Amino acid sequence: MKKILTLLVAVLATASVAHAQFGIIGGWTTSKTSIDTKNFSENFKGLDNFHAGIAYHAKLPLGFAVQPELTYEMKGAKIDHPDGIYAGLSSTKAHCAEFGLGVQWGIDLLIARPFLVAEPFIGYQFASDERVSIGSYQVDIDSVNKALNNAKNKLDYGISLGAGVDIVRHIQLSVKWYKNLGPLFNDSKLNNVGDAVVAAVKDTKNYQGIKVTLGIFF
User: Where exactly are the structural domains of the chain?
Assistant: First the structure.
């Protein structure tokens, strides 16, 4: 059994090296959030953003392939009417570095390879911009914004699901739905922002949306 496993690993490694390609990727990202609370009635509007990075594509037997990706991701959302009477977020933005491990399965048609993909990912937010709508509440808006930025979770994780096509082995186009699964804010760090703001912010859902990606592989 040990010899069989060793041989299998060697075959997979050889296949990966023989059919491996490096590439650059980038494209369009939609993102949105939602609030599930009775204390805040405004609705978030999604923002159009972008992503860009590098990828490594390695073919495996039986139509499978793996594609690790390291990307810069910009995500965010805003309130349609931030000047309402309620206190809460008026916009949320994140600049993240994400690592995803895409597992693909497709059919090689020589000039094209359509495929399905599932991609778990982890990310680190290195910058953010949180803005609040205070309404009639008398608070220090700069202190609230600073506190919200500090309370934003830096580490995150999620999953992407989608489909794509490789064209003549050098061009890749994919469309994926993604969902960040970790909480957007760390409730224990929401200090000195006022009860009304905390009540709204703590129920804000994490980012989700659609990614359309174009890749060039060499």
Answer: 21-217
Residues near 41 by beta carbon (within 8 Å), at least 6 away in sequence? 84, 86
Amino acid identity at 134: I
80/156: higher pLDDT: 156
Q: How many CB atoms lie within 10 A of CB 149?
A: 14
Q: How far is CA 82 from CA 59, 85, 176, in A?
A: 48, 9, 30
Mention every residue, 6+ apart, whose C-beta is less than 8 A from residue 102.
66, 67, 68, 69, 117, 118, 119, 160
How far apart are the C-alpha atoms of 94 and 209, rounded to whole Å? 14
- Which residue intervals of 87-151 are DSSP H helices? 141-151
Residue 73 CA to residue 126 CA, distance in Å, equals 11
Alpha helices by DSSP H, listed for the chain, are: 2-18, 141-151, 195-201
Write the DSSP assignment of 81-117 as a string of letters: -TTSSS-EEEEEEEEEEEEEEEEEEE---SSEEEEEE
Q: Give the closest residue to 123 by CA, choosing from 103, 152, 144, 151.
A: 152
Tell whether the model's pLDDT for residue 166 goes beyond 80: yes
CB 164 within 8 A of CB 113: no
Tens of pLDDT along 92-149?
889 999 999 999 999 999 899 999 999 999 999 999 888 776 655 555 667 777 888 8
Per-residue confidence (pLDDT) for residue 52, from 0 to 100: 98
Judge: domain 21-217, CATH 2.40.160.20: yes
